């Protein structure tokens, strides 16, 4: 059971005295070393409603406090002040290096995404570019790609063409499924500066992680590069298109940078799955039976 917090004479401290007894730089305040000041400031910035008293209490819950290294940890008046904390204790005060690194990355992500969201509204600094960004949005939307693939599939008169288009359809459906599942699991809200005026959306599209447009653009461009014989300039254009679709998501304010980055990664990996499971009349004859009967 935690013992009550005491002053340096060993008397229990009231809540108010406890919260005011430590000054910046004192051990209970997270001071006494550069590492601990950093710890204190990161704790305080965790959530807007968390005050410094709460942060100090968190510090007092740390393994170092429990081990009695701090003078406020219930030691008597006769005990001498503890020696400076060894390196490993400083590490203990830091609850999770990975957590802090992730929080820092997220802070950079939010800051950068806000800066890049220059087409988020008509009155934004690049607001006049919004129609162009929306055109890019449609170019990476699921519906034109799905309809185009189905049309090509039914119009195709070669086996090779049907096989490629059947796999393209599989890729698009796999992408829709994976993006929907991840969005529903992660539930990251779209940036506050986004206007929800998107062309046909699903209910999960109120969430932003990962970007469905970025994943589709990466998937499509990898698919096209691998299955269409294109001249070099067209190959470069294909990759550029995918990149610009991703960038336009952040510029429109639809996504944060990390949503788009993960979307690209997801789309890239999805192509590997499609390639691995490549459907053909040999391994999936049922899918091609429609044409066999013609
Ligand atoms: C077959 C079927 C369920 C088709 C639905 C196609 C559809 C509405 C896809 C949604 C595309 C979309 C708005 C994705 C959101 O992209 P973000 O980049 O904003 O995540």
Unreliable stretches covering 5 or more consecutive residues: 1-78
The CA-CA distance between the termini, in Å, is 79 Å
Work out the count of structural domains. Answer: 2
Mean pLDDT: 78
Report the bound ligands by name, code or SMILES: the ligand CC(C)=CCC/C(C)=C/CC/C(C)=C/COP(=O)(O)O
Helix content range: 55-70%
Strand elements, count: 0
The helix-and-strand class reads mainly alpha
Radius of gyration: 28 Å
The count of helical stretches stands at 13
Shape: globular
Report the order of strands and helices: HHHHHHHHHHHHH
Biggest sheet details: none
Portion of residues in beta strands equals under 5%
Question: Would you kindly provide a written description of the structure presented here, covering whatever features stand out?
Answer:
GO terms for molecular function: isoprenoid diphosphate phosphatase activity; lysophosphatidic acid phosphatase activity; phosphatidate phosphatase activity; sphingosine-1-phosphate phosphatase activity. It holds the Pfam family PAP2. The protein has helices at residues 15-21, 34-44, 52-60, 63-66, 87-93, 97-116, 130-139, 142-155, 159-186, 212-227, 232-251, 257-276, 285-292. It has two domains: 15-91, no CATH class; 120-292, no CATH class. It contains 13 helices and no strands. Helix 8 packs antiparallel against helix 9 (159-186). The N and C termini lie far apart (79 Å). The chain has 294 residues and is mostly helical. Bound molecules: the ligand CC(C)=CCC/C(C)=C/CC/C(C)=C/COP(=O)(O)O. Residues 141-143, 146, 176, 198, 200-202, 205, 211-213, 249, 254 line the site of the ligand CC(C)=CCC/C(C)=C/CC/C(C)=C/COP(=O)(O)O.
